[in-house]
Amino acid sequence: MERYYFDHNATTPVSAAVLEDFLAVVRDVHGNASSIHHDGQLAKQKLEMARRLLAGLLGCEPREVVFTSGGTESNNLALLGAMRNAPAGKRHLITTRIEHPAVLKACGQLEREGVSVSYVAVGSDGVVDPVEVRRALRPETAMISVMHVNNETGAVQPVEQISFVAREAGVALHVDGVQAFGKVAVKLNELGADYYALSGHKVNAPKGIGALIVKKGSKVGPLIHGGRQEQGLRAGTENVAGAVALARAAEEIGETLEESGEKIRTLRDLLEQGIVSRVPSAWVNASRAPRAPNTASIGFEGIEGEAMVISLDLKGFSVSSGSACSSGAVEPSHVLLAMGLDAAQARSCLRFSLGRGNTLAQVDALLDAVAESAAHLRRLSPSYSEQ
Ligand SMILES: Cc1ncc(COP(=O)(O)O)c(C=O)c1O
Fold first, then answer.
1. Start-end ranges of CATH 3.90.1150.10 in the chain?
2. Going by fewer Cβ within 10 Å, which terminus of the chain is more open, N or C?
3. Which helix (H) or strand (E) holds 299?
4. Distance, CA 203 to ligand 1 centroid (Å)?
5. 3-state DSSP call for residue 4?
């Protein structure tokens, strides 16, 4: 059976050009970038070229790029590394209710360490209001942390305005850019964030590489202790092949961002319109928000999202439900709950996230499969009756 992949917000396939560069480094560059001999310097050269390329694409300085293992580590480094090094008395952090667990769990850890955390609410469109962020400021606030694009709904957050709030108040700004990088234009010189986190495997690079952009002058300490790699912020022998792959992926995706973004948006919109017109009582979450072009979060009244994921999987489609399975129970998505959906509505939602490989024929096939699965599951559903 042919398989169609509609889960690019979870991870992406490695592109052919990126794989080629990655494998060339794995094969030909075996030195340790900290060694002073020829082999070491060759590795160092590759690493620094990747750093310069990525910095140029993002609009920051090469020495502001800290390579990490991925988005989770980058977010943890920014939050824990900055809050643990904040001046005495600055023990308050502002974040939002729709962040990824890589931020929310790091905030939970900070709370256990005595930091007070404010979780700002979002509107029914899934967007944070900068006024609410400003309202949460206290004299002891050290940092604001907000995501650029939400991984479940695709809603783009007003990071420029929140950056203004942060600068006005003199507090640091961390932006989780994992789902924005490669989907919307990221210009760090205009954004004004002190920390910006990104991840390779969301942009057609391999898993195990990411970066945290740390603005010059930021007060942050390492989480991993050892050698002096990555400006002393991330000890451990560098993943040179990963860094080269990440920079190449950023270059490749940047070259076609607008063009492929438009194509993907057209397919996404066709998918949403098709589902809403063919499946009764289906709705699109965050439809009024500015959104990344590839993400559709859709609710199917009376259906369990997990059942729909399995049903579509059996038909050859990889999609994701908004809910997470923890301790054997299916928990409704905290993002959808924060937007005002009730638990049953949140559990009925599916996330479709498109990528550059998806085609109109695949979307058409997915539409047929969704309509069929929804009708079938509703016949079995005790909680759904057609009006
Ligand atoms: C918004 C967001 N932040 C952080 C992460 C974590 O990134 P990684 O999987 O590279 O650790 C993800 C991954 O799903 C994400 O969507």
1. 257-380
2. C
3. strand 295-300
4. 12
5. strand
Ligand 1 centroid – CA 40 distance (Å): 31
Pocket test for ligand 1, best of 7, 8, 73, 100 (most atoms within 8 A of CB): 100
Are residues 245 and 205 in contact, defined by beta-carbon separation less than 8 angstroms?
A: yes
- Supply the CATH classification number for the domain 16-255: 3.40.640.10
Distance CA 339, CA 341 (A): 6
CA 302 to chain centre: 29
CB of 71 within 6 A of ligand 1: the answer is yes
Pinpoint the residues of the chain covered by CATH 3.40.640.10: 16-255
Phi, psi for residue 164 in degrees, rounded to 5:
-65, -45
Task: Give pLDDT tens digits for 98-111.
Answer: 999 999 999 999 99
Superfamily of domain 257-380: Aspartate Aminotransferase, domain 1 (3.90.1150.10)
Q: Two tokens at 76?
A: 């943890």
pTM, whole model, 2 decimals? 0.97
How far are the Cα atoms of 105, 176, 208, 210, 224 from residue 72, in angstroms, in the given order?
10, 9, 10, 9, 14
Q: Position of tokens 């924060």?
A: 338
The number of angstroms, rounded, from the C-alpha of 199 to the middle of its chain's C-alpha atoms is 8
Q: How far apart are CA 24 and CA 27, in angstroms?
A: 5
**Residues acting as catalytic residues:** 325
pLDDT (0 to 100) of residue 326 = 54
Cβ–ligand 1 contact at 146 (below 6 Å):
no
pLDDT > 90? residue 332: yes
Q: How far is CA 342 from CA 96, 159, 306, in A?
A: 19, 27, 16
